[in-house]
Amino acid sequence: MAMTVHVDIVSAESEIFSGTAEMVFAPGAMGEVGILPRHAPLLTHLRPGEVRVKKTDGGEETFYVSGGILEIQPHVVTVLSDTALRAKDIDEAAALEAKQRAEQVLADKTSEFEYARAEKELAEAVAQLHALQRLRKKVGR
Amino acid sequence: MAVGKEIRTKIKSIKNTQKITRAMEMVAASKMRKAQDRMEASRPYSEKMRNVIGHLAHAHPEYKHPYMVEREAKRVGFIIISSDRGLCGGLNNNMLRASVIAMKEWNDKGIKIDLCTIGKKANAFFGRMGGRILAEKSGLGDAPQIADLIGVVKVMLDAYDKGELDRLYLVYNEFVNTMTQKPQTMQLLPIQAEPEEELKHHWDYLYEPEAKEVLDGVLMRYIESLVYQGVVENNACEQAARMVAMKSASDNAGDIIGELQLAYNKARQAAITQEISEIVGGAAAIQ
Q: Which of A88, A119, B81, B105 lies 20 to 30 angstroms, CA to CA, from A50?
C-alpha cells in the first residue's frame, strides 16, 4: 500500500479541495516543488500556476492558483490560495486609495475624538430602541 | 359616503408601507442565508491559517516576526466594521458603543487611537464625532471579496511596521443566531498564540526563500483573513438584524391598520345610525 499525504487546498472565500494524495506538485517561489509523503516541514510562497494532485486512485487533478502560501508537514500539505492578484504595487495602490478616502471623510473635521458627545449620542439611540421595545411589550403584542 | 375619508387614506398609506417592510423582510431573509453560507465557506481558510500560525509560534524560528512580539502600547489602532445601510435595528449602535467603550479605556490611560473604518455607518459616525481615521472602505456589497480589503488592512499593517501603532484591534458583530448578534472586540496584533499541546521537540520549518519574506506573507494574509471573516460575519448579522427589524415593523403596521379599521367602522356605523334616526324623525314629523 502506497504512502499517502493529506492535501487541503483552500482560499479565503471557499474550500477548494480536501483529500489524500500520493504526490503533490506546486509552483513554489524558488521553483516547482514535488511533495511526497514525509516531506520535511516547509513554508514557502507560491507563484501563479498549477497545483497538481496525484490521487491514490491514479487520477490527477489540477488547480490553478494565482499565488498564495504552501505549508508542508510530514503528513499534511496545505495550500492557502490567494483569490486576488497580489503584487507590491497593486497592494500599494489599494492602500493609497483607502487613505485618500479617509482623508476625504476627515476634511473639515476636528481630529480629536469627542468621547462625551459620542457616548451621549449612542446612549440616546439605545434608549430610544429600548423605549420602543418596552412600549411594544406594554401594548401586549 | 364622505365619512372617514381621512381614515381610509391613512389605512391605505400604512398598507403600502407594510408592503415595503414585508418585502424588505423577505429580501433580508434570503440574503441572510447566502451570507451565512459565505461565512461558513470562509472558515476552512482561517482555520488552516490558524494552524500554520500555531505551528509557527511553537516552531522556535530563528527569526521572530514583529507581529508576534508584544511591545509597550503607546498608540493603538482599531479596525471597525459596520454595515453600509441602516434599517437594521440596534446593530450598528451596539457595535459602535462597544468600540467607544474599548477606545475610552485606552484614552483614559492617555493613549492615542487611530481608526480604520469599514462600512458607511462607522465612517459617518467617526467622521461626525472626530477621530483620526487612517483608512476607510465602504460599498462592499453583499458579496465582499478579500481583494476589497487589502488596501485598508495594509494601511494599518504599515503603521504597525513603522511603529506608529503598537496594538491593533478589530471590532465587528458576531453572529450568534438570527435573533442575537454580539459586538466583539478582538486583538489582531500582536498575534496571540493559543497555548496548545506541550512542546515535544523543537523544530522549525524550512523557509523558501527566506524566513522573513515568507513570514511577512503568511502573517499579512492571516490578518487579512481575520478582517475578511469579520466583514462576512458582520454582513450576516446585518441581514439577520434587518430581517427581525422589518418583521416587527410589518407587525406594527398590522396593529395600526387593525386599530384604524376599528375606528373607521365605528365612525361609519355612527353615521348610518344617525341617518336612520334622522329619517325616522323626519317621517314622524310628517305624520
A: A88
- DSSP for B103-140 reads HHHHHHTT-EEEEEEESHHHHHHHHHH--EEEEEE---
The yes-or-no verdict on residue B268 having pLDDT over 90 is: yes
- Nearest 5°: the CA angle B29, B256, B273 is 145
State the catalytic residue, choosing from B35, B76, B88, B103.
B88
| Grid cell locating A101 | 478616502
H or E segment to which residue A67 belongs: none
Residue B175 and residue B235 in contact, taking contact as beta carbons nearer than 8 Å: no
Cross-chain CB nearest to A115 (options B46, B49, B107): B107
Count Cβ neighbours within 10 Å for each residue of B48-73 and write b for 16 or more, e otherwise.
bbbbbbebbbbbebeeebebbeeeee
What integer pLDDT is reported at residue B201 of this predicted model?
A: 61
Instruction: Name the nearest CA neighbour of B155 among B82, B96, B225, B78.
Output: B78
Contacts 24+ apart (CB under 8 A), B193-197: B193/B53, B193/B54, B193/B57, B193/B58, B193/B68, B194/B54, B196/B54, B196/B58, B197/B58
Mutation site for B-interface testing, chosen from A70, A115, A119, A135 by largest number of B Cβ within 10 Å: A115
CA-closest candidate to residue B182, choices B90, B105, B47: B90
Q: Give the ranges where chain B is alpha helix by DSSP (H).
A: 5-41, 43-58, 91-108, 120-129, 146-161, 211-286
Query: How many whole angstroms separate alpha carbon B46 and alpha carbon A1?
Result: 33
Q: What is the pLDDT of residue B183?
A: 94
C-alpha A104/C-alpha A111 separation (Å) is: 13
> Which residues on neighbouring strands pair with residue A70, listed in sequence order?
A44, A79
Decide if B252 and A136 are in contact by the 8 Å CB cutoff: yes
Tell me the C-alpha distance between B139 and A43, whole Å. 35
User: What is the value of pTM for the model shown?
Assistant: 0.87
Q: Which residues pair with A79 in a beta bridge?
A: A9, A70
Burial class (CB in 10 A: 0-12, 13-18, 19+), B215: buried
Q: In this structure, are residues B152 and B145 in contact, taking their beta carbons and an 8 Å threshold?
A: no
Q: Which of A73, A110, A122 shows the shortest C-beta gap to B130?
A: A110
Q: H or E element: which one contains A105?
A: helix A88-106
